[in-house]
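User: Just a sanity check before I run the rest of the batch. Below are the structure tokens for the first item. I only need the designed sequence back.
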């Protein structure tokens, strides 16, 4: 065999081996660098650090993988922020609940101790024990109201309760809501006037919509002066049916229009009035779940006018 051919073959094989070895070294370094970059990004994602979005838009495998990791980073960061907000809301709610429960429980314990003390000392005044028992009863009712409201709120927020929409008579729904406040209204000699066609049918959940209207009415009765008037007016709009509930109370400042629908929010100077600030929050949630919404404005009488909008 020709020596030149043999030498040429050996050189070719040698060059080929050098080429493939160099290629292998280059690809290995590239893969190691790629792996290190991915590991670094994943570590930063785990720590919740913000990832730099520069130089990620080249059409390369590395840039595409980094873009997906960036999306994952954004999702994880949003989830952490949402979880933190929820944790803060829960902490605030627990604090508010503790505050609301503390007063009636303390009152019940105090009057119970007074009753026991009177019984052991046999020092009684006419009607004194009966009066204390009535106070204790009112505090127990307040506790029951608070617990029931919190249960409704919890069930709504955790989706344990599903609203069932079907064609219902809105007039009948308003009548049920009015019945909830009739006794309180009579105690204050309030006149509740309803202007609603008796054959107004809408897709709604009768039970929860009566609850929503009843919560607004309860506020209207609570803050209306004795012998005042509350009007309920139903209007058919192009896309919605509007239920206006107007009273003659002290009204709400415009800067607090959004605040009144928050959990446990009470208007300044109104903390002496009975209530825990959950009713209007529940009303908004119920309306939202039925595709509606609510607003508040100053009524012509100077009081408050709540407008509840339902898809018509």
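Assistant: Here's the designed sequence for the first item:
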């Amino acid at each position: 065999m020709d020596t030149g051919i043999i030498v040429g073959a050996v050189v070719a094989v040698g060059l080929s081996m050098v080429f493939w070895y160099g290629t292998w070294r280059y690809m290995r370094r590239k893969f190691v660098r790629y792996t290190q970059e991915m590991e670094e990004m994943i570590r930063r994602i785990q720590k919740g650090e913000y990832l730099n979005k520069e130089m990620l838009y080249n059409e390369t495998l590395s840039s595409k993988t980094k873009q997906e990791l960036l999306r994952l980073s954004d999702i994880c960061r949003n989830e952490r922020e949402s979880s933190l907000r929820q944790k803060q809301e829960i902490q605030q709610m627990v604090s508010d609940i503790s505050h609301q429960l503390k007063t009636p429980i303390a009152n019940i314990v105090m009057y119970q101790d007074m009753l026991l003390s009177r019984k052991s000392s046999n020092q009684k005044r006419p009607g004194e024990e009966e009066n204390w028992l009535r106070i204790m009863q009112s505090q127990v009712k307040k506790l029951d109201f608070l617990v029931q409201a919190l249960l409704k709120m919890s069930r709504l927020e955790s989706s344990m309760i599903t609203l069932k929409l079907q064609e219902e008579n809105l007039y009948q729904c308003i009548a049920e809501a009015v019945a909830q406040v009739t006794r309180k209204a009579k105690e204050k000699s309030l006149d509740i006037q309803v202007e609603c066609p008796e054959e107004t049918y809408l897709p709604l959940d009768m039970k929860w919509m009566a609850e929503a209207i009843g919560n607004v009415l309860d506020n209207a009765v609570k803050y209306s002066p004795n012998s005042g008037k509350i009007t309920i007016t139903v209007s058919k709009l192009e896309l919605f049916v509007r239920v206006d509930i107007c009273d003659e109370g002290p009204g709400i400042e415009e800067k607090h229009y959004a605040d009144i629908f928050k959990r446990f929010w009470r208007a300044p100077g109104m903390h002496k009035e009975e209530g825990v600030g959950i009713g209007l929050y529940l009303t908004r949630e119920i309306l939202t779940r039925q595709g509606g919404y609510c607003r508040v404005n100053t009524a012509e009488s100077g009081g408050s006018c709540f407008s509840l909008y339902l898809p018509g």
